[in-house]
Amino acid sequence: MSKNNTLPTKFLWVDLEMTGLVPEKDVILEVAAEVSDAGLETLASYESTIQHPRQLVLERMNQNPWWRDFPDNRDDFLKNLAGSKTLAQVEEELVAFVDKHFGDEPAVLAGNSIHSDRAFIKQWMPELELRLHYRMLDVSSWKLVMQSMYGVEFEKPEVHRAFDDINASIAELQYYLNWFKEHGQS
């Protein structure tokens, strides 16, 4: 959205997988981004894992018990550390990705619980943060409204891999929008 309050023409869907939820202590392990049009059709995508010292990742994972629930993910992240890109490389590529697809239009960040991802972006990717609009499209807010006001629930798979989680978030928002169309809500 530009400063003249024009409506966004696209959304920047982002999901990060981190060692935990504290941006000052935890690190980003994986990032995925998709650009969708306003109709939620994917226009472009980006995905990468991020290189970190193995000991740091293990230490942070061991301090966050939810990693025990996803042993396959944990093993995948640990196996991929050596072949991953540096955080600086990933940020540079994401900045180029956003510049290419949004131009002068600030990117409206979208996803589930996107405030957490935004905090990590602010902490670890300041150049990317500069390209983001202050508004965000948080599907979690839709979830709260749909469940509490309409009793509507979306069964989202618990994969905890960045690219899969983005696609699940887009599908969830599309599900809610379709529900409104089917039920004549406006």
Proportion of residues in extended strands:
15-25%
Shape: globular
Secondary-structure element sequence?
Answer: EEEHHHEHHEHH
Quickly name the level 1 CATH class of the domain at 10-138: Alpha Beta
Q: Let me know the largest β-sheet.
A: 5 strands, mixed
Count of separate DSSP helical elements: 7
**Mean residue pLDDT:** 90
Low-confidence parts, pLDDT < 50 over ≥5 residues? none
* CATH-derived topology of the domain at 10-138: Nucleotidyltransferase, domain 5
Helix content: 40-55%
* CATH architectural name of the domain at 10-138: 2-Layer Sandwich
* Span of the ends, CA to CA: 24 Å
Radius of gyration, whole Å = 17 Å
Strand order of the largest sheet: 3-2-1-4-5
Quick recap of the structure?
The chain is of the alpha/beta class and 186 residues long.
Describe the structure in your own words:
The protein is an alpha/beta fold. The protein has a domain at 10-138: Nucleotidyltransferase, domain 5 (2-Layer Sandwich), CATH 3.30.420.10. It has seven helices and five strands. The chain has helices spanning 54-62, 71-80, 87-102, 114-124, 126-129, 139-150, 162-182; strands spanning 10-18, 28-37, 42-49, 107-111, 132-138. A five-stranded mixed beta sheet has the order 3-2-1-4-5, sandwiched between helices. The longest helix has 21 residues, at 162-182. The model has no long low-confidence stretch (mean pLDDT 90).
